[in-house]
Amino acid sequence: MNLSRTLPIKRAAHVYLVRGEELLLVEERMDDGSIFYGLPGGKAQPSETLADAAVRQVLVETGLHVTNLEFVSLLEGELLTGTRNECFANFARFTAAFHGELDPTDPEVVGVKWVPFEQVEGLVRYGPPPECEERNPLIWLPTRDFIAGKARAYYPI
């Protein structure tokens, strides 16, 4: 990493909510009108821990209350190098117990669905625009490993 410059830090946390052999995904509409499938969770506020961000964001995006968070992995490093959204990222992944009814209140979420493990990767869109870090294949590598039962604790970006 080039230490002669300062990058903004993006901190986010997502939760693997599992029901049998299904993973809960949220559906969001992108600026180009397409549907993006992602893990429930999102950006941490400045004074918020990644675990607290995960709990707050999952509630807003799904309506579910999560408890007993267990750390799974951390993604860390420079993201979107050379784009207008270049940043240093710290993305945590957790699992958790959950209860409640699916009832998203986030206006960006257009749906929430349980997806069989074998169908998750088929819903992921990679590629342009590069400003959408969720479309970077490196962001989805920990999820692929988690579904396969081979999650690592650390993923450099």
TrEMBL record:
<protein>
    <recommendedName>
        <fullName>Nudix hydrolase domain-containing protein</fullName>
    </recommendedName>
</protein>
<keyword id="KW-0378">Hydrolase</keyword>
<dbReference type="InterPro" id="IPR000086">
    <property type="entry name" value="NUDIX_hydrolase_dom"/>
</dbReference>
<feature type="domain" description="Nudix hydrolase">
    <location>
        <begin position="8"/>
        <end position="137"/>
    </location>
</feature>
<dbReference type="Pfam" id="PF00293">
    <property type="entry name" value="NUDIX"/>
</dbReference>
<dbReference type="GO" id="GO:0016787">
    <property type="term" value="F:hydrolase activity"/>
</dbReference>
<dbReference type="InterPro" id="IPR015797">
    <property type="entry name" value="NUDIX_hydrolase-like_dom_sf"/>
</dbReference>
